[in-house]
Amino acid sequence: MEHITIVRTAGTQWQAVSDGLVVGHGDVAHRPDGRLFVSVDVWQDPAFDRLAAAMLADLPAPLHTLVGAADPELAARWQRFGFTLARREREYVVPTAPGTPVPPPEVTVLPGTQADPGRLGALERAIRQEVDATVGWRTMPAEVVPAPGGSLPLDPGRYTVAVRDGRYVGLVRVVPVRSRARIGLVAVRAGDRRRGIGRTLLAHALGSLHHRGITSAWAEVDESNAAAVTLLEGAGAQRHGGYLELVRE
C-alpha cells in the first residue's frame, strides 16, 4: 500500500495525504439528537480504510453513517469496520397542489404562528412519547429536541396544527429549502388517528407551498413505517432514491 498519512485537521475533520497531496477527507457531524454521523470521501481507494480506522479510533461509539441505497460497495466498506444496518430510508418527491383541503368534522387547521407555544411544545412532547413507546423516535426523519435548559426550540412558522374539540392533536412540520421544501414530520396523537387528520395536514402543507410558488417538496420515510409510506404515496409522492443508515455500536 502506498504511503498515506492521516491528519486530524479540526475537531470534526480528517485528511488523508499522499506525496503532499490530499487524497481524501473524513468528517463527523453532531446531530441535534446527540448521534454522531461519520462520512469519508476519497480519491484513492486505500485512503478509505486508513481514514475510517483513524476516525473510529478517535470517536466514541455508537457511530452512524448514511449510504445511498444504490451504493452497495460503500456499504460493504463500512460493514468491514463493524457497521450494521439500522434502517432503510426512502426519499420521496411530493408535488404541491392548489386548493384548501376540508378537514374532518370537529377538526380545524391552525397555522403554527397562531398556535399557543406552550400547547404546541406539549403536543410535540406527547407525540414523541407515543412514538418512543411503539416504533421508537429513531424511526422519525426529523428531530425537535429539548435545549439544554429544557425548553423546546420550536419555530412556529414551520408548523401547522390540527385542533379537535379544542385539543391540539396533530402537526406537520415544513422547512423551506430554496425552491423546494422538506416535509420533516407529520404526526397525529394515537387516540385521534384514522380520522383523516394526517391527510388533511399534509394536503394543507402542500397547498400552502403551492401558493408560495414552490412546486415540489421532499420527505424521507423509514421503509418499515407503512402508515407514513401510505400517506405520502396517497398524496402522489414518487420515490426518488433512498438511503441506508448503518451503525457501529
TrEMBL record:
Pfam families: Acetyltransf_1. The keyword Acyltransferase applies. Residues 107-249 form the N-acetyltransferase domain. Keywords: Acyltransferase, Transferase. Gene3D superfamilies: 3.40.630.30. This is GNAT family N-acetyltransferase. It comes from Streptomyces racemochromogenes.
